[in-house]
Amino acid sequence: MAMKINTNVTALNAQRNLLIAQAGFAQSVERLSSGFRINRAADDPAGLVNSENLRAQVEGLGQAIANTSEAVNMLKTAEAALNEVNSLLRSMRNLALHAANTGPNDSVALTADQNQIASAIESLNRIAATTQYGTKYLLNGAAGNTALVNDITNVQGVTGGGALGTGAIGISVIQTAAVATSSIGQGLAVTGTVSAAGTLTINGVAVNINATDTYQDVINKVNGVTSTTGVVASFSNGIVFRQQTAGSAYSITVSQSAAIISGLSSGVLVNAQTGTNVSARVSFSTNGAITYTAIITGSGTVLQGTLGPANDLRIALTNTGAGVGAANGMATGTVIDDINLVAGGLRFQIGANFQQTVSISISNMAANNLGTTATGLIGNPSNVSVAIIDVTTSDGAQNAIKILDQAISDVSAMRARLGAIQKNTLETTINSLGVARENLAASESTIRDTDTAGEIMRFTRFQLQMQAATAMLAQANQAPQLLLSLLGGG
Questions:
Q1: Of 155, 173, 153, 154, which Cα lies nearest the Cα of 327?
Q2: How many helices (H) and strands (E) does the chain have?
């Protein structure tokens, strides 16, 4: 082996190994002190990418759990308010039942019942108007669906359908809605006088006719009770009776106690007509492709039924809706844009990724929106809702019972929807998200966290290597001293 003064290769070798041991020792100390195997991208570039993706998922799942828990609390708030609405409706129903007991009741008792019902209606409207979660109103319709109606000449609006999602609804009318009409006394002159005095009964409501009344007087008297009967009278080569509301639930019955109208027998049903309901093929599409389609027959001009997952879809058409769609329906792939629907006024982000949401709509719970679909009422009134019930008459009390039954059913159905979303979607999502977060956190830990036991072994090895390299560097630095003996010997 050659011995040189200028270059001590042995010392350089020892120094290099010492630097390697020092770098490994420093990295080991960093890992043990931080708890992370990957502290910078250079430690493991591919592992860092995987770890950061998993971290984003783990943190996103944590936020999704918080979001879902908040959604549960919001629905609990709405459901608690609806529970009070149900309670008020049951109380009002009991008052209607009491008022219907006309035998022992006098006008004072009926007025007291009506006043208490009016107070309950005020409470209903107050709950609907003021129920909030934070600053969000829940029962005043703000949490309902948002629908842009493109065909405003035939479509008046849409409610429900929160389970559908966002897309377009198309309507293809098969049968248009119609109002009941009845014509009697053809050939009479409007200025002519009735044949006899008596009672003309319109949908169960008696109208007193005098012997001196003209047919125009008869028309005026019939129109004077339209708010109760729902029937409007006019003259066109005779008297024409017309229901104000379309649909099979709204009919016209006319009878007379004597031969009031010339040419008709007394005491005999003059005419009975029933309206027709609209029927249509309703389709829902996203991106122009039909997802759901169904034949839906509604009540009057309102299409109400099930379309795919939407079991409460209601689309209000105009009096006929005849211009909507075509009678033969629509083919798959047709672009549908009668109604653009953003379903679910309340949208919750319940997942850690894009579009992992759930939506729900809550209808307006004000009194004028409850019980509106009640049918089979006495006199077939044109306007039906909890807001207008009147128990001061026997017929009004009976109608109030049916209207309140429908309102209770409507509110209970909404509560059931909220409960189903809470139990079957939100609460189960919280459980599954918790498990997913736990497993993803374990995977991220495997990639990024320090294996302390293994790192202690590396730490000890690097520590011993540093000590050995330091000792050998000292010995290597002593090697040139041997040259002095050679130089001294010369």
A1: 173
A2: 9, 19
CATH number (domain holding residue 195):
3.30.70.2120
Sign of the CA dihedral running 328, 332, 333, 335 = positive
Contact 176, 320 (CB under 8 A): yes
Distance CA 139, CA 418 (A): 12
Instruction: Indicate the residue among 274, 306, 334 that finishes a domain.
Output: 274
Nearest alpha carbon to residue 175 among 253, 43, 275, 257: 275
Which among 286, 298, 303 has a CA at the least distance from the CA of 156?
Answer: 303
Which of the listed residues 225, 246, 274 is the one where a domain comes to its end?
274
* pLDDT (tens digit per residue) in 317-336: 877 666 666 544 444 444 45
Burial 243-270 (b: 16+ CB within 10 A, else e): bbbbbbbbbbbbbbbbbbbeebeeeeeb
φ, ψ of residue 270 in degrees (nearest 5)? -75, -45
**pLDDT of 388-447, one tens digit each?**
999 999 999 999 999 999 999 989 988 988 998 899 999 999 999 999 999 999 998 989
423 in a structural domain = no
SS3 50: helix
- Residue from 239, 207, 212, 240 nearest 224 by CA: 207
Given a contact cutoff of 8 angstroms between Cβ atoms, the answer to whether 221 and 229 are in contact is no
Domain that residue 26 falls in: 9-35+450-489
Residue 345 included in any domain = no
How far is residue 303's CA from residue 325's CA, in Å, rounded to a whole number?
A: 14
Domain count, the chain: 2
Q: Is residue 255 part of a domain?
A: yes
- Containing H/E element for 239? strand 239-243
**pLDDT tens string 281-291:** 888 887 777 88
Of 242, 239, 263, 262, the C-alpha closest to 184 is 239
Beta-strand relationship, 146-149 and 339-342: antiparallel
Distance CA 434, CA 138 (A): 28
The pLDDT confidence band at residue 14, using thresholds 50, 70 and 90, is: confident
Asked if residue 72 belongs to a domain, the reply is: no
- Quick one: pLDDT at residue 215? 86
